[in-house]
Known about the structure:
This protein is mainly alpha-helical. The protein has helices spanning 2-39, 46-66, 77-105, 110-132, 149-156, 166-188, 190-200, 202-207, 212-237, 242-247, 249-259, 264-282, 286-292, 311-325, and strands at residues 145-147, 164-165.
Amino acid sequence: MDFLNAVVAITNLLIIPATTYGAQLALGALGVTLIYSILRFSNFAHGDTMAFGTVVTIGITTLFQSWGISLGPLPTALLALPFAIAITAVLLVGTDFAIYRFYRKKRAVPIIFVMASLGVMFVMNGLIRFMAGVKDQTFDDGTRFIIKARDFKEWSGLDEALSLRTTQVLTLVVAIAIVAWLFWFLNKTRTGKSMRAFSDNEDLALLSGINPNRVVMVTWVIVAMLATTAGVLYGLDKAYSPYTYFQLLLPTFAAAIVGGLGNPLGAIVGGFVVSFSEVMVTYVWKKVAIYLLPEALEPNGLLQLMSTEYKFAVSFAILVVVLLFKPTGLFKGQSV
């Protein structure tokens, strides 16, 4: 019985949250890796892109709710998501047209694009705070739990409870659907193959008649979809806070680099590596140890390696280790 309690505790407070968080990071890291592999620069405005898409989704969700529009047991944000993606895509394509295209024509070195993206990040940061303020916001509705803690305890007879929120299942379902679509798009469609060719050899792709402006525009649209979806799923699972989305830039980049910057599969794996590392390091293992160890060996402390306030330091540490010992990442940074 103690062993089952330990398993339930780990599942409830480690495996489920880490899997959900990993799916959110994977979507964000996919956007980072697409920009790097096709547009060839690291976009530091990606975290604020996630925040912008989430803010727009919150606004549209509130509008729909005022009109009495809902999805029943599912969050109304799902209905608002396509509209938010479209608005975010317009912003990204417009930003590219106004800023990045100039540097592409000049064939500027990647660091110039990085510095330009820093400027875009600060502008978007201010815009988001002007639109939504700085306070945390929740925008979840519909059925909140698939498995309730009290119901599970009554059913199982265990001391430990297991709960499963609708947003956690929704995150996995939406993430799997988007990743499957993205891989199909990149490998099976003509536009996707053009993007891969452009990524592998830009000059040869241009000689083959591929329209670079179309490739760039489609890339930004897909990035808008990935960033907005990741931001909304994160906000539904936790809460919206512009500061949190700014901080998410670090684990998102860490996920992309761990897997191999420029490799979509690596971005997905990297997302889960970072998420499980963060959750495991900040998890309080005392309860599990009490269930599994003899009474004489029961710990007095929390058995928590790091406080949750410092979880982003885990991403930084992983990033440093990977850059020092395996800078190409787990999948050697292969392009799309």
